């Protein structure tokens, strides 16, 4: 339970820090943070740029989400 609580606390902190930096991250109560991008091409380009830096971040785009609501999915781990 302590690891799960710590993970959720870190996810909340990351979400807050991203929002304070002007990044569109809705408030969620989960270790999965959506970073709203909008355009599917921009989401894919951002995911590729992050992968080049060693971060695997999934680009979620149509048909999984409605057109114009593409996003990055940040999935935090307890480890």
The helical percent reads: 40-55%
Let me know the average pLDDT: 95
Which structural class matches the secondary elements? alpha+beta
Radius of gyration: 13 Å
Strand order, largest beta sheet: 1-3-2
Q: Residue ranges: pLDDT <50 for 5 or more in a row? A: none
Summarize the helix and strand pattern as letters. HEHEE
Count up the helices. Answer: 2
Shape: globular
* Termini gap: 14 Å
Task: Work out the number of β strands.
Answer: 3
Beta-strand level of the residues, as a percent range? 15-25%
Largest sheet: 3 strands, antiparallel
Please give a structural write-up.
The protein is of the alpha+beta class. The chain is built from two helices and three strands; from the N terminus they run αβαββ.
Short description:
The chain has helices at 2-20, 40-52, and strands spanning 32-38, 58-60, 70-75. It is of the alpha+beta class.
List keywords for this structure.
globular, alpha+beta, single chain, 41% helix, 79 residues, three-stranded antiparallel sheet, 2 helices
What's the SSE blueprint?
Layout: H1 2-20, E1 32-38, H2 40-52, E2 58-60, E3 70-75
Antiparallel strand pairs: 1-3, 2-3
């Amino acid at each position: 339970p302590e690891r799960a609580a710590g993970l959720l606390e870190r996810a909340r902190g990351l979400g807050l820090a991203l929002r304070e930096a002007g990044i569109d991250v809705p408030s969620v109560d989960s270790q999965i943070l959506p970073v709203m991008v909008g355009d599917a091409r921009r989401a894919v380009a951002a995911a590729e740029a992050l992968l080049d830096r060693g971060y695997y971040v999934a680009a979620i785009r149509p048909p999984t989400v409605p057109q114009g609501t593409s996003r990055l999915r940040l999935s935090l781990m307890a480890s």
